[in-house]
Structures are given as structure tokens and as C-alpha cells.
Design goal:
By secondary structure, the protein is mainly alpha-helical. The chain has a domain of 40 residues. Helices cover 89% and strands 0% of the residues. The chain is built from 2 helices and no strands. α1 runs antiparallel to α2.
Amino acid sequence: MLLGKKVGIISAITGLSIGLFYAVSPVMYNLSNGHISGHDAGLQSAVISTVAGLSFAAIAIISNKQSKNT
């Protein structure tokens, strides 16, 4: 695996993880303070998790296709 590819994958996963943290933090804050119900928090968390899962899958697919080309 090329060094640039490794750095790109690590950067993508790190950026996605940081974004995931900042997306979930307000939901948990609002849930703990009683501003939203558990149902609303679950729905928002499900949407966030779905987007994160699709993003991780896209990173994996692109990485796999790149390994076949090099």
C-alpha cells in the first residue's frame, strides 16, 4: 500500500470520527437535559449512524478498488 493512500485513509477515518463525535454530542446533551425525548434522540442517532456507516463503507470500497489497481 502506498504511503499517500495510507495517509488518505487514516485522514478520512479520523475526520469522519471527529465529525461523528461532534454530531452525536448535541443529541446526547439535549437528551440528558430533557430537551428531547428518548424517541427523538434515537431517531437522530439512527440517522447519524446511517450516514457514518455509509461513509465508512465508501472509504472501504474506494480503498479496495485502489488496491486492485496498484
